[in-house]
Structure formats: C-alpha cells, structure tokens
Amino acid sequence: MASSPGPDNQLDQQANAAGNIGADYRLRGLPFTLGGDLNWVPGYTTRLDARQTTSVSTKQVWDVYTLWTISPAMGLRLLANHLDPRDYGTTGVNDSVNVLTSANERTTSTNLAQIYTNWQLRLELKL
User: Fold this and answer.
1) Is residue 79 domain-resident?
2) Which residue in 10, 19, 63, 109 has a CA-CA distance of 20 to 30 Å to 120?
3) Domain span at residue 79?
4) Is residue 5 part of a domain?
5) How many other C-beta atoms are found inside a 10 Å radius of the C-beta of residue 4?
6) Is residue 72, in this structure, part of any structural domain at all?
7) Number of domains present in the structure of the chain
C-alpha cells in the first residue's frame, strides 16, 4: 500500500487528540449520587490519498445521571446521553481529471448526523 502525501496523512478516522473527564458526587446524608462526563474530540482532516480527503467536525458529548440507592441491592438510575446535542458532520473531497475534457474536477460530499438527547430510566439490581 502506497503512503499518502502530506499534510494530514494519518489513519482514517484517527483524531489528533481526544479528551474525557468525568465526576461522581454522593450527596451527604441522602441516598443520591450525581455524576456525569464529557467526551471531546476535535475536528480534523485526513488525506486518504493524493486526491482525496475527508474532514470530520468537532464531537462533544455530555452525559449525566442521578442514582437513587433504594437499598444496598437496588437502585434507580436516570440517565441523559447527549445532554447538549450537537450535530456531527463529515465532508469528503475528491479531486479528479475529466477524461473527456482533461479539466480538473472536484467532488464534495457532506453528511450530517442529527443527534438527539437519549433519556433512560434503569432499575439496577445486585444479585
């Protein structure tokens, strides 16, 4: 497999960085625990070959939960995934030469994923 010329010649769908941070807090004197986390991946462009690139937008995901500990063996958890929903997009660019006219052509495609908040209520049992 031949290597792609720079810049941005990295593995497909491999961001330059990613970050996760999370925290839990048990409310003193109450049977409740609050928690959440943030996942962040910066936008980036990847060169697939000399004439083709793909770009991905920044991805940010907030998840939060509340856990009510009913007993040591049972809890009720309310979760919200994608609490601050942000659409996630990818754009592909392909440069080519038209064989009939010898003219340079550029094809661009954009895909947008619409994100929604996902709510869950779980009964958790320890066996």
Assistant:
1) yes
2) 19
3) 19-125
4) no
5) 17
6) yes
7) 1
Q: Tokens for 11, please give them.
A: 């593995």
- Show pLDDT as tens, one digit a residue, over the chain (127 residues): 456 666 666 666 678 889 999 999 999 999 999 999 999 999 988 888 888 888 889 999 999 999 999 999 999 999 999 998 888 898 999 888 888 888 888 899 999 888 999 999 999 999 9
In a domain, 3, yes or no: no
Q: Taking a C-beta distance cutoff of 8 angstroms, is the pair 66, 77 a contact?
A: yes
With H, G, I as helix, E, B as strand and everything else as coil, classify residue 30: coil
Closest CA to 60 of 113, 22, 11, 19: 19
Can you tell me the distance from the alpha carbon of 99 to that of 72, in angstroms, rounded to the nearest whole number?
A: 72
CA–CA separation, 72 and 40 (whole Å): 34
Global pTM value: 0.71
- State which amino acid sits at residue 80: A
Answer yes or no: are the C-beta atoms of 87 and 112 closer than 8 Å.
yes
Distance CA 17, CA 14 (A): 8
Nearest Cα residue to 90 out of 17, 41, 19: 41
